[in-house]
Design brief:
The chain has 342 residues and is mainly β. It has two domains: 58 residues, no CATH class; 278 residues, Porin (Beta Barrel), CATH 2.40.160. The protein contains five helices and 13 strands. Strands 1-2-3-4-5-6-7-8-10-11-12-13 form a twelve-stranded antiparallel beta barrel. A hairpin with a 6-residue loop joins strand 9 and strand 10. The two termini are 36 Å apart. The N terminus is likely disordered.
Length: 342
């Protein structure tokens, strides 16, 4: 009841509708019936019923295609020309994405990763992700996805030998603060590890102060993220059938850090179903030579979105504190994503 009254007060004071939506799967939003604030004959029960009907409509899944392009500067660990040191460098990254998502919950996403390495645009990795999301219950959502990464053999910076990642999540959809739990498990092959062994050992040297080689290396990593967020919406913000959304999200990540997961950009495709975020930054990779579960990062995401019809633009500021780093624990990252759904 308190939530409904809060929404009503915002409606009266701002003359706009501002309330949360749990799933960005709905690209076309039907405007809520507008009531003149001077009309004292408005039935509050009817008004709240319209709010409830709106919430029901935006939680209903349907099928769509997605095309987007994410751009931002991320950190990469480059090997020096003589191979003696590893240095972090901030480079401009592009991530084009194509995806199809069926209303049954089945989806398929393809994402490319390109970086300006200083000499040319390097198309160094492609990811293919089949997924399934259970969206029929309006109170919660859950899902699972598998990602296969295809990485070029020779790149001048570190890429993890993990070429397979399995992700599962559970999120509450109707609470004002929306908690989410997600877990990721990544694995690779011995061949992938041997191709990157020198870089892996150099990165571990930065953390431990010595080089450790395990001839029975297990090529796996595990992470768990607990997050909470709230979506603020303004419908018909500038024109008919547009909306603006602002979403602050706080996430705490723990896990192993033997190899580090593949870097994933904050494209619309990665959050289309569950509104989660994956931090895109490799500045603070300090690979550990012993498998242990430990706190990794505390991250604040500040995301904006403007959508009109089928098109959207999403700027995002990421503020991350990385616990294992011995220095420069704090990192910030700005990305922008543009695309359309049809």
């Amino acid at each position: 009841m308190l939530k409904k009254w809060s929404i009503f007060v915002a409606f009266i004071m701002l003359s706009v509708v501002a309330f949360p939506q749990s799933n960005s799967v709905d690209s076309v939003i039907t405007p809520v019936k507008q009531f003149p604030v001077t009309d004292t004959s408005v039935d509050l029960d009817d008004l709240f019923q319209d709010f409830d009907a709106f919430m029901d409509s935006i939680l209903s899944p349907h099928s769509y295609f997605l095309a987007s392009l994410s751009m931002g500067k991320g950190y990469y660990n480059f090997e020096s020309k003589d191979g003696s040191i590893i240095a972090s460098s901030k480079k401009l990254t592009y991530s084009p994405t194509l995806g199809y998502y069926h209303k049954s919950g089945v989806g398929m996403t393809g994402t490319g990763y390109l970086v300006d390495d200083g000499s040319h645009i390097n198309f160094y990795q492609f990811a293919l992700t089949p997924s399934y999301d259970y969206l029929k219950n309006k109170s919660f959502a859950t899902g699972i996805s598998f990602t296969k990464f295809f990485t070029r053999d020779s790149v001048p910076f570190y890429t993890t030998p993990l070429q397979n990642e399995l992700l599962g999540y559970f999120t509450v959809r109707k609470w004002w603060f929306r908690p989410m739990l997600s877990m990721s498990y990544g694995w690779g092959s011995r061949t992938d590890y041997l191709q990157r062994e020198d870089l892996i050992q150099d990165l571990r040297l930065r953390r431990r102060g010595f080089t450790y080689i395990n001839t029975k290396e297990s090529i796996t990593d595990l992470s768990m993220t607990v997050s909470v967020r709230h979506d603020f919406y303004w419908l018909d913000a500038i024109t008919y059938k547009d909306h603006f959304r602002f979403t602050p999200q706080l996430a705490f990540t723990s896990g192993t850090q033997k190899f580090g997961f593949n870097q994933s950009s904050n494209t619309y495709a990665t959050v289309i179903r569950n509104n989660s975020n994956v931090l895109y930054s490799t500045e603070n990779i300090y690979l550990d030579d012993k498998l242990k579960f430990q706190p990794l990062s505390l991250t604040m995401y500040l995301r904006g979105e403007y959508s009109i019809g089928k098109f959207f633009i999403q700027p995002q500021l990421t503020l991350d504190y990385y616990f294992p780093a011995t220095s420069k624990n704090f990192n910030s990252l700005f990305t922008i994503n543009v695309g359309c759904m049809f």
